[in-house]
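Reviewers of the previous submission asked for a worked example of the structure-prediction workflow described in the proposal, so we include one complete record here. The input consisted solely of the amino acid sequence. No template or homolog information was supplied to the procedure at any stage.
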Amino acid sequence: MAKVLYSVTMSVDGFITGPDGDMQWMRPYLGPDPEVEQLLPRIGSVLAGRRSHDGDDPHKGEAGEGQAFGGGWSGPLFVLTHRPPNTSEPGITYVDEFAKALALAKEAAGDKYVNVIGANVAKQCIEAGELDEVLLLFAPVMLGDGTRLFEDPGGHTVRLERLSVTQTPLATHLWFKVAD
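From that input alone, the workflow returned the following structure tokens.
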């Protein structure tokens, strides 16, 4: 049965994008990463939000631009959106309902991970009790502004159990299991 994983690169001050959705801040930290390379074959599908799918690409101008993990992964991609386009792209399924999108992504993933891309989609997974694990790749930088990893006005505690901590020259990885 598929597990739902939110894997994301984050600044040490808690931002996953810079101001105005800027993802170019990540470019210096996208070098070889054995943890990510080991994760990629374990991903069976991707569930992304529309803003993340259509937004700035840290691989802009490179061969992997517009592809999950800069082209390092390929497979079924489900985009959660309030406005599905009239025409679709090969390999991409646009879905306008969270529960349906997650169910389709889980079915497509089989016994692998559904990798979540986008803070809003991750928050919806948390609220639905559907997030199983979180992999944070901390880049050694502080952005000061942008999109937070998880923001819940009024507060909502999500307990995590640490599964592992690893380091590469470009990032420190914290892998957690959602305990709640």
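The longest strand covers residues 3-11. We consider this example representative of the routine output the project will generate in years two and three.
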